[in-house]
Design a protein that fits this description.
17% of the residues lie in helices and 37% in strands. By secondary structure, it is α+β, with helices and mostly antiparallel strands. It folds into 2 domains: 156 residues, 2,3-Dihydroxybiphenyl 1,2-Dioxygenase, domain 1 (Roll), CATH 3.10.180.10; 88 residues. A hairpin with a 5-residue loop joins strand 3 and strand 4. It is globular. The mean pLDDT is 92.
Length: 271
């Protein structure tokens, strides 16, 4: 991870939930636009994944639950009841796990009715047998319940070298995509109107500053490579419609304006 502006949270990855059938047989439309890297099986045995790596160090995680797992265990998972074929969540990271204590304290001090949990150990095993370890922390409400996935970032804090988990610097073509996508430009989060103010206070606390990405609720993030290309902004808007996450990629001169990733899911690309 770049040493540039260590105080700024880095966007780590964006999570797209798919069926296991889709994960093991990715549709042609996806493979025609993106190079997909192998992932692995998570330590809890419930899920497996594949990755779309970008040259800015951020990645898209295509994650699926195994078909033969217990339905009750799946329903208790953070993403177990969410709709497949959609962007369901996203993660920030920090250069050092020890820096997370300051983030938690700022969020507590904001008194927005939301806090972050202790970091809980997690991991997965890569197809080559490499064991990856990290810790994850999620936002919780005043009653201790996990907040709705995607409304706030969860934190993925590496305990093994991040380059093992996200090998975007390897010169093997995994970050070269036919659609020309080079990284993540922005995330736009639609949330219920009654939640927007409290969420804004938490985002201010996470970033250690008020919205600076223009009008409305916007906050700037870093990327692991340290690149300054792209908007690198999180936008939050409250409304009466459905909640959701809109992911916008940063492309190159030959990139299309949008690509169909999955049936019903298209991603915008900014050249």
């Amino acid at each position: 991870m770049s040493s540039q502006d260590d105080s700024r949270p880095c966007l780590d990855h964006v999570v797209i939930l798919v069926s296991h059938e889709t994960l093991v047989g990715l549709p042609d439309r996806l493979r025609e636009s993106f190079t997909v890297a192998p992932g692995g099986t998570h330590a809890d045995g419930l899920t497996c994944n594949s990755l779309i790596l970008f040259e800015d160090g951020v990645y898209i995680e295509l994650i699926a639950f195994f078909d033969d797992i217990d339905a009750d265990r799946r329903s208790k998972h953070r993403w177990g009841r969410l709709k497949e074929g959609t962007v369901v969540d996203w993660a920030y990271t920090l250069r050092h796990e020890s820096d997370f204590a300051a983030v938690r304290q700022r969020v507590d001090d904001a008194q927005a009715g939301l806090t972050y949990s202790d970091a809980v150990s997690g991991g997965r095993t890569k197809p080559d047998g490499t064991v990856l370890k990290w810790a994850v922390a999620v936002a919780r409400d005043a009653q201790g319940n996990a907040s709705r996935p995607g409304s706030l970032p969860f934190w993925c804090l590496d305990r093994t070298n991040r380059q093992l988990r996200v090998p975007y610097e390897q010169d093997d073509g995994q970050t070269q995509h036919p659609c020309g996508a080079r990284g993540v430009s922005s995330l736009a989060l639609a949330v219920p109107e009654q939640e927007a103010t409290a969420l804004g206070r938490v985002y201010d606390a996470i970033h250690g500053r008020s919205s600076t990405a223009g009008s409305g609720h916007g906050w700037r993030f870093g990327v692991p490579s340290g690149s300054a290309a792209g908007k690198h902004a999180i936008w939050v808007s409250g409304g009466d419609g459905a909640s959701g996450i809109t992911l916008v990629l940063r492309g190159s001169g030959h990139s299309p304006a949008a690509v169909a990733l999955l049936p019903g899911l298209a991603l915008q690309i900014e050249s």
